[in-house]
Amino acid sequence: MVELNALTKSYGRIKALDGVSFSVEKGSCFGLLGPNGAGKSTTISAIVGAIKPDGGTIAFNGKPPTPAARRNLGYVPQEIAIFEDLNAQQNLAFFGALYDLNGSKLKSRIQAVLTQVGLQDRANEPIKNFSGGMKRRLNIGVAFLHDPDLIIFDEPTVGVDPQSRNAIFDILEALKSQGKTLIYTTHYMEEAERLCDRIAIIDHGRVIAEGTLDDLLATLPARYRLTIRFQDAEVSTKAKEALARAEIGQVAEMGDRLQIVPTHVATSITGAITCLQRNQIPFEDFHTIRATLEEVFLNQTGRSLRD
Question: What predicted TM-score, i.e. pTM, was given to this entire model?
Fold first, then answer.
């Protein structure tokens, strides 16, 4: 539905976008994951037409974007963009009029949106009385009031509490179930993991990795880590020496714990336990941890996603 090819954008000597390319399939949720300043918002601004790229192309359904095509998208900016002195219903009526909605159709869409974002009981209350999470939900409602096929979310959970965050996730998942195409930018890896069918990791204006969650995790040396806890650091050191000889995988010592990047999860767990028992080394407990997008970013760039 949306295709970007080699987008570039510079501000003086700063390259905000350096050849960004990706495509978004109809009915999917596509995530743009990266740290602050990576180029996520600049990419979104180019898609919605707020800025003009220096180079590259954008296509909607295989065609260059036109004002008519962009009317078929909804946009949720980072900053809340609603009128504080109006109530929820009045805000929606104002923005609906911008899309030529009126009469019974506008009234019907307002009621549907208020219900979907969970604000039907607060429709006539001034926005200035709303919590930050409620304002965010209304802001999202504004974006899909005109029933667009494509909705773009630019870090919509910034500054909201966990309960409001989950409510926003529910809204997005409902929109996706209705066949909407979503583009979602975030620097929270767990959001991308939960919501997105495909994810592009962007850094310094370049897409450094793209694919499904499984595709991205497959770029790591191992998709799981095994952590074993011992009585104390002395026992941990003894265990490390034994496991190293058994060639279970890469073993790192962390005080009274060992962290193992296994060559194969199932055989390495069995092999590690067998090795410890054979060497009569007791352990307190062990567990496996699945690799995350944070580790993909670290593996690709050499630094943390939140650095």
Answer: 0.82
